[in-house]
Amino acid sequence: MSNQDQNIDIEQYKITTEPYYEAMGNEVALYKAAYASRMPVMVKGPTGCGKSRFIEHMAFKLGKPLITVACNEDMTASDLVGRYLLDANGTRWLDGPLTTAARIGAICYLDEIVEARQDTTVVIHPLTDHRRTLPLDKKGELIAAHPDFQLVISYNPGYQSMMKDLKQSTKQRFTGLDFDYPDSKVETAIVMKEADIDEVIAAKLVKIAHTARHLKGHGLDEGISTRLLVYAATLINNGIEAKEACQMALVTPITDDKDIRDTLVHSIDSIFA
Amino acid sequence: MTTESEFPEYRNKLKCSFGQLEDCFDDCIKDALRKLSTQGTDDYLSGASLVCMIGRGFEPVLDYLEEMPLIANSLGEEVLKMVSQAVWDMSRTPNGNSIPPFMHCLPEVSRRLRSKEHMRKFIDIIFEMMHATTGSIHGHHTTFPSPGLPDLLKQIPYLLSQLSLDGLKNWIEYGVRNYNDHPENQRDYFTLQSADSKAMLQRERHGTLYIDHERQLDLYLRSMWEAEEYLVPYSLGFDELRKPQPYYDSLGIRIPDVYDERNGVSGINRYRIVLAHMAGHKRWSQRQIADNLSPFQRIAVELLEDSRIEALTLKEYPGLKKYLLTLHPVPVEGTCDNEKESCIRHRLAMLSRAILDENHGYQNPHILDCVEKFHAALKDGESSSQEMLHIAISFTAKTRLQSDQLPKVRFENTEVDYRDDNRHMWVFIEEDDEPEDMQRKAQDADLESPEGLPPRHYQEWDYNSSSYKPDWVTLYESLHPPGSPADIDKILEKHAALANYLKRILDLLKPQHYVRVRYQEEGSELDLDVAIRSIIDFKSGSQPDPRINMSHKHDGRDFAVLLLMDLSASLNEIPEGCSQSILELSREAVTLLGWSIEQLGDKFAIAGFHSDTRHNVRYHHLKGFTEHWDDSVKARLAAIEPGYSTRMGAAVRHAAHYLEGQKAEKKLLLILTDGEPADIDVSDERLLIEDAHKAVEELSAKGIYTHCISLDKKADDYIADIFSPTGYTVIDNVDKLPEKLPKLFMSLTA
After folding, report:
1. ipTM entry
2. Lower CB count within 10 Å: N or C terminus of chain B?
3. Checking DSSP bridges between strand A141-144 and strand A133-136, what pairing results, if any?
C-alpha cells in the first residue's frame, strides 16, 4: 500500500495560475483563519456566484493541492472513499478522491454536497471532527489525515427541496461562509475583467441579471448567475449582437416558462435600446 | 300618383303605395342613381318593392330606400338582394317586430364589416339565432317570436365595436344555449344586463386580454420594478361617456381589461408601459399640496411630473423610448385656434411631446424654454416633484391666455393614454366635510368581515357546445364543525379484528429504503459472488461475465392522496340488507382508511362536498395534508352530515387545486360517492356527468390520478363515461365497504 502513496502525483492537483477572484467582504481572511486550524468550511450561495472560484483562489494562495468532487445523486460512499477493482491477478484497491486528499494533504472540495444522498455524506464525519481519520472498512485500514488536509463543501440552499437538506449532524461539523451575487459595481467589474468587455455593456448585463433575480421564487428557481453574464459578455465580444447574445446566454438556459421568457426578453429589449 | 315624380319610369318599378313615399322618393332615387349601376338600380327598386310587400308599415321601406344605396356602394351591389331577401324571410316568421331594428342596424354593420362576405355571414348569424330562439310550444308551430332578437339587433352596433364576427357568433350562441327556455333571462342576456353576458363578452373581445396575461404583468413588475402590486382590471366596454383612465391607490393598480395593438405596439407592451409609468410614480413622485393651485396649474404640474417620470424611466430602460414615441400623441403646432377654443391641453401636450422627442420641430419659444429648463433640472440626479411644480407654474404664468377659460377645449391629439390620472400626487389639506361623508363612514363600519374563505369560482364544461361556462360555479370552503372524536375511536374498537389484519398488510407495504440491483456493469460496489464467479470463468479460459458490480436504489413511497366524500342527501338511505345507513358505513370505511394511511405515513387529506345549485357548492375540510390523524380530525369526521346534491365537477377541481400544491411523486384523488353527479338546477342529466368527466381529464393532464369508489349498484350506466376504464370500483355490497376501502387503497398504491 505504501508504494501506492508515492505514486500519487501531487502536482496535478496544484493550481498553477492565479484564478481571478474579486473579494466581496473579508471572506479571504476568514477562510485563512479557518484553514490555519484546518477547520472544515461550508460555502453557501446560489449557483454561479463564485463559490468554486473562491476555493480555487484560496488553494492557490495557500499553495495547497485541491481535489474537487462534483457530487450527484448516484454517488455512493465508495465513489468517495475507494473501491476494489479487478485486474488480471485478482482484485486491486483504488483510492477515492477523499482518501487521496486525506493521504496527500489536499483541500478536498465537495461541490454541491446536498446532491449526494445523506447516507453517502456521513462518510466524511470522522474526517471532520477531532479524529481526523478515515476508516476504509472494506480494506481494513484507518487513514490518519495528513496535517494539511482540509475539507470544504459547497451548498446551495436555494433550490433544493426539503428532501435534499443536510443532516444536522453533518451541518454542525462545518463553519460557514455565506456567498451571494456580488453587488452591481463588483459584478460589473467581474464581468468586465472575465470577458474583457467595456463597462457600459457590463453594467447593462448586470442590470438584466437583477431583473431576473427579482423573479426568484416566482417561477424561477434561480436568478441569472454571474457565470452566465460572463458567457453573454463573451458572446458579445465574439461579435454577436447584444440582444441575441442575451437571449442565448441569459434567457434560453434558465427557463422554459413562456411568461418569464417574454418578461426577460422585454427587459433585455428595454435595457439594450 | 306617379305623375308627381320626376322619375316616373323608376317610380313605376317600385311597387309600393304608401302615401309618405311620394315625399322622399325623388331624393332617394337621385341618390341611388348617383351611387348604383343600372342593374343595381333595378335590384334596388325590386328590393324595396319586396320590403314594401311584407306589410310592416312604411318605416322599413324608408330605411331601405335611404340607406341601401350607400351600403351597396361600399360593399357591392349583391347586398341589395341579400338584404331584401333577408327582410322577406324574416317577415315569414313570427319575428316581424325585429325588422325595423334589423334595418336600423345595417348602416353601422356595413361600416364595421366592410365586405359583402362578412355581411352574408352576419345575416346568417342573426338568422341562426332567430330560428333557435323562435318559440314552439310542444313542438307544434313556431308561433312565438324570439324574445331576444329585437334587443340583440339594438345592441349590434355596440357589440360589433367590441367583438369580431366570430366573437359575436360565440357570444350569441352562448346566450341561445343557456337561456333558450327562459325568455326573461334571454332578454337580460341580449340587452347586456346580466353578469353572464358581460363576462362572456369580455372573454370574446379582441385584443390582448388582461386575464390572459396577468402573470406576465406580475412578473414584469417584479423583475423590472421590484414591485409587488395588486392589479385590478376595469372594463373599457361599458362606460361610453367617460373613458376610465388607469390609476393607483392604496388598494392596487387599476388597468384596462383589454388593449388592442396600436401602431405596431403590441397589447402586452402597452400594458407594460402603463405599469412602468405607475411604478415610476411610486418610485420617484412625492405628494404635493393641491389647495393653493388652480386647476390649470395642477394639470401643468401633473404633465411635467409625468414627463419627469418618463425621462427617469428612459434613463433606466432606454429601450422603451421607441414605444413611448409611438404611443404619445403628436400635436401639430398651430392647429388650435386660440380665439375659438381653449388650447391649454393642446399646448401642454406639445410641451410633453417636445420633452420626449428631440425632433419635435416646434417653434413656440415658451415651450422651447420650458423644455430646456426641464432637461437642465434632470441633468444630474432625478430632480423632484417640487421642482417640476415650480417649472410648471412659471410655464402656465407665461402662456396663460384668456381663451383658456373657454368651455370648448381642444382634446384632439392631447390624450396620453398610458399615463395614469395622477390622483396619488395631491394632498388636500382641507378635507371636504360634506354630510354624506359621515354616512359613508358609518356604512363602512356596518360591513362585517366575511367569515371563512372567500368563495372560489370554477368553470363548468358544457358538452352541448364543447365550451366552458366561465366562473359558473361558486364554491365555498369551510372547516367542518367538530363532533365527538370518541365516536371514531369506537369504530376502530368495533373493527379491531379488521384493523389487526390491515396492520399486517401495512407492514408488508411499508417502504424498504434500499433495494440491491445486481448484475451491473457499472455500479457502486463490487458484487463479490459474481466477481468470484467471473474470475473462475476467466481463469478457466472462458468468457467472464463483465456485470460484476451492484448498486442500490431507493424504493420509497411518495404519495399524496386526497379522499373526496360525497355528502349528498342520499347518504341517509339504508341500503337493502344493511342495518346501517350509507353514511355510517362510509364513516367507518374512511376511519379505517385514515387510520391505515396514518400508519403508512403517506400524505393524506379528507374533504367532503355537497351542492345546492351552482351558486352554493360546499366543500368541507375534514383533514389537511399536514394534519395528523388526531382528535380534531376525528371530531370533524364524526360530525359529517349528509344534505343537498352532488355537483362533482367543481369539488373535484377544488380538490385538484390542493393536490397540485403537494410535492409528491404520485398524486391520487379518491372519490367516494353513492350516485351520479346531479343538482337541482340542472335538468339535463348528462350535463354534470360530462362536466365531471372533463374535470377528471383536467386532473389527469395535471398528473393527478383519479379513482372513484361508487356505492351505486346502477353506476355501470354512467360511471365509465366519467372515469377511465380502470379508474373506478363499484362496491355492490355496501356492508363490506369498511373492509374494502383500505384494501382498495393499498392495492392502488402498492
Report:
1. 0.78
2. C
3. antiparallel
